[in-house]
Amino acid sequence: MSDRTNKDKDQSINAVIDKFLKAYNLEGRMKDFDIINGWEEMMGKAISLRTDKIYIRNRILHLKMNSSVMREELLFGKQVIIDRVNQKAGTQYIVDVWFE
């Protein structure tokens, strides 16, 4: 098989997966999954270790921190969190961050 044939097959598989995600409205859930799994990479180990719970609902990132000091520090940097998450998502996906 030539390289071109393999590349065409890869592209068609990607197209099939994209169609599947769109058909079952799973695109948003996949972005949620990518953001949650990339939390440590985006924010660093110190913040990741102090994050007890993270989820996304209605374009709002919900965080439960186990450190009140870290929570207060992150409150001042909400826009940085929003920017990093949206950069990871590749679109304006998160509009706010709420702390529990």
Explain what the structure shows.
- There is one protein chain.
- With 100 residues, the protein is of the alpha+beta class.
- The chain has one domain (3-99).
- 63% of the residues lie in helices and 17% in strands.
- It has six helices and three strands.
- It has helices at residues 3-23, 27-37, 39-43, 45-49, 68-76, 78-89, and strands spanning 51-57, 60-65, 96-99.
- A three-stranded mixed beta sheet has the order 1-2-3.
- The mean pLDDT is 87.
Number of helices: 6
> Rg, please?
17 Å
Q: Helix/strand/pairing class, anyone?
A: alpha+beta
The strands making up the biggest β-sheet line up spatially as 1-2-3
Label the overall shape.
elongated
| Secondary structure tally: strands | 3
Helical proportion, percent range: 55-70%
Largest sheet geometry: 3 strands, mixed
Number of domains: 1
Distance between the termini: 55 Å
- The low-confidence parts are none
Order of helices and strands: HHHHEEHHE
Instruction: Name the average pLDDT.
Output: 87
Relative strand content: 15-25%
